[in-house]
UniProtKB/TrEMBL annotation:
GO terms for cellular component: plasma membrane. It catalyses: Mg(2+)(out) + ATP + H2O = Mg(2+)(in) + ADP + phosphate + H(+). Residues 1-22 are annotated as: Disordered. It comes from the Bacteria. One of its GO terms (molecular function) is ATP binding. This is Magnesium-transporting ATPase, P-type 1. It is an enzyme of class 7 (translocase).
Length: 780
């Protein structure tokens, strides 16, 4: 038993390299194939829950049920990071040398000291770093305030000391341990990776992990009688991903309806969510901005490494004073450097961030402004970003496919008469019915009884009485196949006809056609009830001999601004690609509605089988990728970067976090999961996606004004230094002192301080712009 206990408290993990992606095995995956009793035995637990002492012991062993989070660094660290810039390194190195040559050595020799150059350089560096620090510190504070206020307790079954029996109690989610028995109800977040023990009508939304907009059904072992459970039966879960397994729930998902009892299998970073969160915390990869700044910095350093020795040698040999030649060579090095560049960059980026904040956009990292403008590919999730993440009733049709008010009324009566927690489709029917269902209709019908939804029947029925005529009816709504099993007739206009095989096939074809378009379809049926047939309460036997009235179709629609935003981005040279965990059919429909070419959708399974070289070719020709895991999203994004693209990513789910972090510019929304907001560079506070186009334009304006300064200043400085160098070779004295070069540079730089407010040519803004060290070299 001791060996089993030790074995049960270890998390089994295996990692294998497959196209540079790591696959992990989690404890919850093993338990999906075990019976509840076997899982409880492995966890050394029971259906009566853990004792208080055992729970405390396990808390000490496993640690608190917390996942890794990327926290904003302390203010001091942020201040130091604000000076982490290659340009600043060059300037500080020159300032250090100037301190030795202009102050320390003259002071030792009793000569006059000169701190002018040092003061100028240090002032420029300080202003640049402090401006960047203040802007990023403020935006990080604003981002921190967006953290979701989520429920922080869970209901568990615990046994007290001695012979005290089990009792339910509320504890902090952080105190959950493997082996705890927990209770889930509608509205609850799943606080850990759990194996279901008992459930009733349980629907769980996994969109935050998978990207699928509709809730999925979850079953306990008792549901195996309908072929949907899992009691040592490998077939139902065979070849399924964790999210597709029916008898487990993962941390981060939430219960939309029903209730359940479950055992905690893994907590904290040992969960699927925790492992994902941990993987994205740490050092960020270099973005296009970082790479561009580095390339320009090395260009300036190479110029200095070439020019300074030439100046030193020419003046040393021609003047014979090597000390003076060294000082002049140092002045040339300083003169070649655009001292104001860090400040111009910071002020441009800060101005862009302030302009975006007026559009209710939080820019967490200033460099993201320029990356926004350089972006030539935007990858986006579907659910909650392109779509509203809100199921709506799209059609209410009779069996011929024509719009029917009768079907809408029946569906509304069915949904409004339910006393339990309503699912997303019931809520969609009620919203659609507001203002469409006459008050007289609402008063005319009175509910008699109801038969709730369950996973065996996959239907929900209510009985109502028409108080005007005294008629009693059963109104049933449910999944297509299950409804056809209990239907014998259908309504064609004013006639009720037998549901023969031909009519059944035609009706099935219609529903399948809507399914192929990405709709979720439910059928609505009725049956007349007389007093002798009416039983109280209703039972499944009453759901016989139904007449199909029509169908309802549901969809998570695109945001109103999605199509316009995608068109605007395309007009500005930004290709849009959809990366989603949702199924290809639903994804294709949404993409077509917003103007994205959905031809040749690549799925995660196909990508998994591709080599990196094959994927490099495919990502250039495909626009839509579906059924992706978080790592596959990240792989596609990195492949695009490898192909030379500057890539943005727009997402809001936990499954989007790796891609948000790896993108050159990660964009999320205020309703996103905390982990997504932490990984992003920019947070949109409003649903209007047209702000994306404004961000792109603002980024290009910012970059254009930076390049203006760099081109003008670098070429001007190079011209001055080259002129002085040539003159010094032919005259017996220095044409300009070091201090003269510094003051000249400073006066010229001060005149450039207005550049962040300069206007850009519209033609320049029409396509993405990137740092180009070679172009700057040619300009000089």
């Amino acid at each position: 038993m001791t060996d089993m206990k030790i074995e049960n408290r270890k998390i089994n993990r295996s990692a294998s390299e497959n196209d540079k992606q790591h696959k992990k095995s989690f404890a919850i995956e093993t338990e999906a194939f075990n019976s509840p009793d076997h899982t409880l035995a492995r966890l050394n637990s029971s259906r009566q829950g853990l004792t208080t002492e055992d729970a405390l012991e396990r808390l000490n062993e496993y640690g608190r049920n917390e996942v890794a989070h990327e926290q904003a660094p302390p203010a001091l660290i942020q201040l130091l990071q604000a000076f982490n810039n290659p340009f600043i390194y060059v300037l500080m190195a020159l300032a250090a040398v100037s301190f030795v040559t202009d102050y320390w050595l003259p002071l030792r020799n009793g000569e006059e000291t000169d701190l002018t150059g040092i003061i100028i350089i240090v002032t420029m560096v300080s202003l640049s770093g402090l401006l960047r620090f203040w802007q990023e510190f403020r935006t990080n504070k604003a981002a921190q305030a967006l953290k979701s206020m989520v429920r922080t307790t869970a209901t568990v079954l615990r046994r007290g000391p001695g012979n005290m029996g089990p009792a339910q109690e509320e504890i902090a989610i952080e105190e959950l341990v493997p082996g705890d028995i927990i209770f889930l109800a509608a509205g609850d977040l799943v606080p850990a990776d759990v194996r279901l023990l008992e459930s009733r009508d349980l629907f769980v939304s996994q969109s935050i992990l998978s990207g699928e907009s509709l809730p999925v059904e979850k079953y306990d072992v008792l549901a195996s009688v309908s072929g949907k459970g899992c009691d040592r039966l490998p077939e139902p879960n065979k070849d399924k991903s964790l999210l597709e397994m029916g008898n487990i729930c993962l941390m981060g998902t939430n219960v939309t309806s029903g209730r359940a009892q479950a055992v905690v299998v893994a907590t904290g970073n040992r969960t699927w969510f925790g492992s994902l969160a941990k993987s994205i915390v740490g050092t960020r990869t270099q973005t296009a901005f970082d790479r561009g700044v580095n390339s320009v910095s090395w260009l300036l350093i190479r110029f200095m490494l070439v020019m300074v020795p030439i100046v030193l040698l020419i003046n040393g040999f021609s003047k014979g004073d090597w000390v003076e030649a060294s000082l002049f060579a140092l002045a040339v090095a300083v003169g070649l450097t655009p001292e104001m560049l860090p400040m111009i960059v910071s002020s441009n980026l800060a101005k862009g961030a302030i302009a975006m904040s007026r559009r209710k956009v939080i820019v967490k990292r200033l460099n993201a402004i320029q990356n926004f403008g350089a972006m030539d590919v935007l990858c986006t999730d579907k659910t909650g970003t392109l779509t509203q993440d809100n199921i709506i009733l799209e059609h209410h049709l009779d069996v011929s496919g024509s719009e029917s008010d009768r079907v809408l009324t029946l569906a509304w009566l069915n949904s409004s008469s339910q006393s339990g927690a309503r699912n997303l489709m019931d809520r969609a029917v009620l919203r659609f019915g507001e203002g469409r269902i006459a008050p007289a209709t609402k008063e005319r019908f009175v509910k008699l009884d109801e038969l709730p939804f369950d996973f065996v029947r996959r239907r929900v029925s209510v009985s109502v009485e028409d108080v005007r005529h005294g008629d009693k009816s059963l109104i049933c709504k449910g999944a297509v196949e299950e409804m056809l099993m209990v239907a014998t007739h259908l309504r064609e206009g004013d006639r009720v006809v037998a549901l023969d095989e031909t009519r059944r096939d035609l009706l099935l074809a219609k529903t399948q056609d809507y399914n192929a378009q990405g709709f979720r379809v439910l059928l609505v049926a009725t049956r007349k009830l007389d007093d002798s047939a009416l039983t109280t309460p209703l039972c499944a036997a009453d759901e016989q001999g139904l007449t199909v009235e029509g169908m309802l179709t549901f969809l998570d629609p695109p945001k109103e601004s999605a199509g316009k935003a995608i068109t605007a981005l395309r007009d500005n040279g930004v290709a849009v690609k959809v990366l989603t965990g949702d199924n290809p059919v639903v994804t294709a429909r949404i993409c077509l509605e917003v103007g994205i070419d959905a031809h040749g959708i690549l799925t995660g399974a196909q990508i998994e089988a591709m080599t990196d070289n094959e994927l490099q070719r495919e990502v250039e020709t495909r626009s839509v990728f579906a059924k992706l895991t978080p790592l596959q999203k990240s792989r596609i994004l990195k492949t695009l970067q490898k192909n030379g693209h500057t890539v943005g990513f727009l997402g809001d789910g936990i499954n989007d976090a790796p891609a948000l972090r790896d993108a050159d510019v990660g964009i999320s929304v205020d309703s996103a999961a905390d982990i997504a907001k932490e990984a992003s560079d920019i947070i949109l506070l409003e649903k209007d996606l047209m702000v994306l186009e404004e961000g792109v334009i603002k980024g290009r304006e910012t970059f254009g004004n930076i390049i203006k300064y760099l081109n003008m200043t670098a070429s001007s400085n190079f011209g001055n230094v080259f002129s002085v160098l040539v003159a010094s070779a032919f005259i017996p004295f220095l044409p300009m002192l070091a201090i003269h070069l510094l003051i000249q540079n400073l006066m010229y730089d001060l005149s450039q301080l207005s550049l962040p407010w300069d206007k850009m040519d519209k033609e320049f803004l029409r396509k993405p712009r990137k740092w180009d060290a070679k172009n700057i070299g040619r300009f000089m």
